[in-house]
Amino acid sequence: MRKITLSFALFAALLLISSCGNSQAVQTSEEVKTGLNINVQQAEVEELLNYLSSDELKGRQTGSEGIEMAAQRIESIFEENGLQKYFDTYRHNFEIQGMEGFNIVGVLEGNDSKLKDEFIILGAHYDHIGIQEPIEGDSIANGANDNAAGTVAVVELAKKFAEIDDNKRSIMFVLFSAEEMGLQGAKKIAQKLKEDDLDLYTLFNFEMIGVPMNEKDYIGYLTGYENSNFAEKFNEYSGEKVLGFLPQAKEYNLFKRSDNYPFFEEFNVPSQTISTFDFTNYDYYHHVADEAEKLDVSHMTRVIESVIPGILKMANTPEKEIKLNQHDAGH
Questions:
Q1: Could you tell me the residue range of the domain that residue 220 belongs to?
Q2: Is the preceding omega at residue 147 within 30 degrees of 0, hence cis?
Q3: pLDDT number for residue 34
Q4: What is the pTM of this model?
Q5: What is each CA distance from 122 to 135, 172, 255, 297, in whole angstroms?
Q6: CATH number for the domain that contains residue 107
Q7: Confidence at 268, pLDDT banded by 50, 70, 90
Q8: What percentage of the chain exceeds 90 in pLDDT?
Q9: What are phi and psi of 173, to 5 degrees?
């Protein structure tokens, strides 16, 4: 997540904000999940998280050897699971500040002759801020929660949807680089896909999902909650309240602070981010202590499993049911 500067007073004020939003309960629907294996292997979630946030990758800064290692691991998993390449390779290359950057892109083509031309993008940034000033002898900003956690979610979802193999629309899995440099990787690929006249239905981005929120009746909050019916329809599809509203997300305009936003700007379609970092539940944002051991892997696994039914339904409805609210259509 791009750096957000909070004064101490504002941060303290956040602690006083009571949780609110849509409190209407959504009953679990067995019909939604009948016959659908949503199980994700927690051990595999933990293994990939540990690798991406290991000291060996030195904070995955764009242009570094560490992010090259991360990219190779993601590419190998895409290859093993039969994801197609949208470009000549799994990489979308671009230049930034004299360096080479690359987003990682894999595709599962839809199985419907018409709907396969419509795309859902599942995304997360896999870069972080690299080497920082040492704190107690540690200079590697490992970026476990920001955003190895979101990266793991997208990779695990790619594996799961390749296994399910029942999506009518095509699903594109994108790991963005240079997010920490101003959403640059997302901007570059959004522009490229717009030039390609890609028919983008929605983009669903994953950002900092490594620790649970306290006393919420939903699993993760959705940035730009009020901009579309994404959360409402997704919860309906899921048979449970997966996505909710967090007041701080609107107050600090998190909708514009992650990789969803360049796609909203380019395509003017619902492009939103799920997160479980609420400013009170994790003290190591952009800190060298943002390490895997501080995350809740069972929570991460639950987040990943919770979104599978909603994404699958989104990929299979006859019509595009998720829409921007009227006041946001056309910006």
A1: 31-314
A2: yes
A3: 55
A4: 0.90
A5: 35, 6, 16, 20
A6: 3.40.630.10
A7: very high
A8: 87
A9: -110, 120
